[in-house]
Target: Ribosomal protein L11 methyltransferase
Amino acid sequence: MREIVFLCAEQQAEHLSDVLLDLGVLSVSVEDANENTEQERPLYGEPGLEPDVLAWDRNRVVALLPEHMQPEQLVQDLRDQQLITLEDTDWSVREVPDNDWVRLTQSQFGPIEVGHKVLIVPSWHAEDDILHQAHDQNKVCIQLDPGLAFGTGSHPTTHLCLEWLAEHLQAGQTVLDYGCGSGILAIAAQKLGSARTDAVDVDEQAVLSTRSNATNNQVSVNALLPNQLSEGQYDVVVANILSNPLKMLAPMLAARVKSGGYLVLAGIFEWQIDEMRDAYSDYLSLQPWRDREGWVCLVAHKTN
Model:
């Protein structure tokens, strides 16, 4: 297979990507053309939200070509439509190695240890020695493959929530995982001894993913959409989502916590601590519990 690589300015990158897809390329990616130089610069944006700047000053727009597509004809089509000014020095073609992409992708996702109690294992590592050792050490083992729903266990916010559950969840307690994604926190709660775990997400794909992953892990998780959640309170409410939804959900999440229970929030940058505490100040007193790679987990104990 071949890729065609275009050099373009910031204001052209997004439009060129859309046009290339319309012309039939298989995929498009945008890279910083100044990567690994003194001119390289990052693009920042809160997870789930678009950054203010959508491309770099100088960009490489890389398009994967179908077997039948000739790069010279693709360039001519772009020129004929006068969609972008292209000099001969603005584009090039390179071969894509014929690799085993499935194996290469799987190699990026190995077993993940979380604290001393939890091990997350992709299915292709199910027979590895580390899994047998974890069972011998009475660790909670969660089999989970990367998929469409957020939550492979590799993100710092997921780590923080798993660590809190492993260290504080008591056998027989009830748990609400709000914004469940892949269901990893709900599954961990069940394996750590929760009497009942409800998992909620606004994304139907996440609900289906949670149900499937729970079945694969031989635990019972009640996964559903928000409007399907019955009235009731929980010993532990955990929400690993983004700061803006967490602020909007403050009254509801706080009300779902039993007296004596805990609210555990993640998906929060350290610099967002004060604004998050302000958003919940009428309901609960959030305190920083632990931080990881610039992210923080906030916890509140409901005493009344």
